[in-house]
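Example record for the data management plan.
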Amino acid sequence: MMTRLSDTIAEIQPASKTGREQARQRLDSLAMPHWALGQLMDLAESLAAMAGSIEPDFKQRINIVMAGDHGVAAAGVSQYPQSVTRAMVETMLSGGAAINAIANSVDSRVIVVDMGVIGQRSWSGRSGFLDYRIAEGTANIAQGPAMTREHAQASVEAGIQVAQSLQADIFGLGEMGIANTTPATAVGCALMRITAKGVTGRGTGICVDAIAAKEAVIDRALKINEPDWEDGLDVLHKVGGFEIGGMAGFLIGAAALRKPVVIDGLISTAAALIAQSLCPMVTDWMLASHRSIEPLHVQMLEHLGLPPYLDLQMRLGEGTGAALMFPLVDSAMAILKNMATLDEVVQ
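Corresponding structural encoding:
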C-alpha cells in the first residue's frame, strides 16, 4: 500500500550533475589560485547542483523549529525541567529566543512546529506556528519504546506535510525539546551500530560526572528496545522523538521538492540519519552547517558524508547553526556569479 511517505520518497531525484559540472568549470576559471576559497567553493558547487544552475537564488529562506517532549527526561538526563520546552516555544513565538535573534539578522523567517509538546497550549492562530502534534510527548525510552510505529510514521509524514506547505528557496532545520540529546544520541548509536560510551555529551550542560549515567540510560534504551539499524522507522519508533521524526520527514519532503535544507546540530543530524536510512538519496539535498561540541556529532556527519562549514563550539540547537549558514550561502553564490575569470582579468 502506498503512503505519503513512500509516495514522497518515490519523487526524490539526485541533485543535478550538470549543475555541479558547470559550477566546477566556472569556479576553476576564476581569477584566483585553484580552489583558493576552499570550502566556500565546495558550498557553491553543491548549491549549484541542488539548483541545477550556476545562477540560483536562495534569498527566500525559512528556519523551521520542531518541538517535542521526551519521557526520558524523567531519568534525570537534562539540566532543566521538562516545562522549559513549552516555555521556549512561547519565547520563540514571541520573538525572544536565540533562533529569532540570529534568523532576523540573516533575513530568515522562523516557523515553530509543535510535534509533541506537553501541556495546554494557546498558540493556535499565532503567526509562525504550525500544529502537527502527534501526542503529548514520548514515553521513557529507558523503559520501553518511545512511541508506536504508527506514531513514528505519522511524525515523519507530518514533517513531509510541513515541507509541502511552505514556500522558500532554502530552509534551516532545528528543534526544541528538553532531554532530546538523549534520544538523538540513541538514534545515532543505533543507526551507526555503536554504544553510547565515549560519544555522549553534556546536552543542556549536565555536569561531567552525570555523563556516565546518561550513557547508561542510552545503552539501556538500546538494549531493551533492540532497534533495527536497517530500518529508520523502527529506530524512530524505539528510541526517537516526535520532533526528530518530523525533521526526518521535512528533509524527505524538501528533497522531493528539490529544496536545500541546512541541518543544525546533534538532534537535526539524528533526524538526517533517519531520513538517509529511509532514502539514501536525500543527503543530496542537505547541507551541514556546523560541527557541534557534542561528541557524537562529527561521527554522524561523517556517516552522512556531509562536511560541516562552521566550528563555533556551539551546542544550543534551535537551528541557530543552520541560520548562521545563510550568509555563507550568499557569499558562495556571489563568488560563483560575480567574480571575474582569469581570462577576463588578463585581456
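Summary line stored alongside the record: Residues 61-327 form a domain with the Rossmann fold fold (CATH 3.40.50.10210).
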